[in-house]
Recover the amino acids of this structure.
């Protein structure tokens, strides 16, 4: 992928994307998504980083107004995507650093140590707090 494409993806993700953790409810530690009403833009994202690409509806007060497209990656694919765009991120840089650290706690065995569980809990909470800071400003 070209550096200009990485920078474009980072700008799009900074403005329209989201990174989150579903830990401890689900074992996949991180997910990323971009939602928007402009399908050709997300088709380009899908071309660069194939993921889950679905259609939904953007609604206001429960009334469906426009078709909305959503592109999603989870766990390992999300990590690869975030590593590629990290140098170009501005708004979501801190969130992505924490998300990548959280993804680094993934273990191949089904046994999760208490230490690793604690670290995951702390990182997931940090990510939630960072996202809250963004929305409260």
């Amino acid at each position: 992928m070209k550096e200009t494409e990485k920078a474009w993806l980072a700008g799009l993700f900074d403005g329209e994307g989201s990174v989150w953790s579903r830990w401890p409810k689900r074992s996949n530690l991180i997910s990323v998504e971009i939602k928007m009403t402009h399908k050709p833009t997300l088709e380009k994202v899908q071309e660069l980083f194939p993921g889950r690409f679905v259609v939904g509806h953007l609604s206001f007060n429960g009334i469906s107004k426009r078709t909305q497209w959503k592109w999603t990656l989870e766990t390992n694919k999300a990590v690869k995507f975030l590593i590629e765009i990290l140098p170009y991120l501005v708004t979501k840089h801190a969130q992505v650093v924490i998300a990548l650290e959280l993804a680094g706690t993934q273990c191949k065995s089904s046994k999760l140590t208490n230490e690793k569980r604690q670290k995951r809990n702390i990182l997931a909470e940090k990510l939630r707090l960072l996202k809250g800071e963004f929305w409260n400003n």
Remarks:
- The CA atoms of residues 21 and 47 lie 25 Å apart.
- Residues 3-136 form a domain with the Endonuclease I-creI fold (CATH 3.10.28.10).
- Helices lie at 3-16, 39-48, 75-85, 93-103, 114-136.
- The radius of gyration is 16 Å.
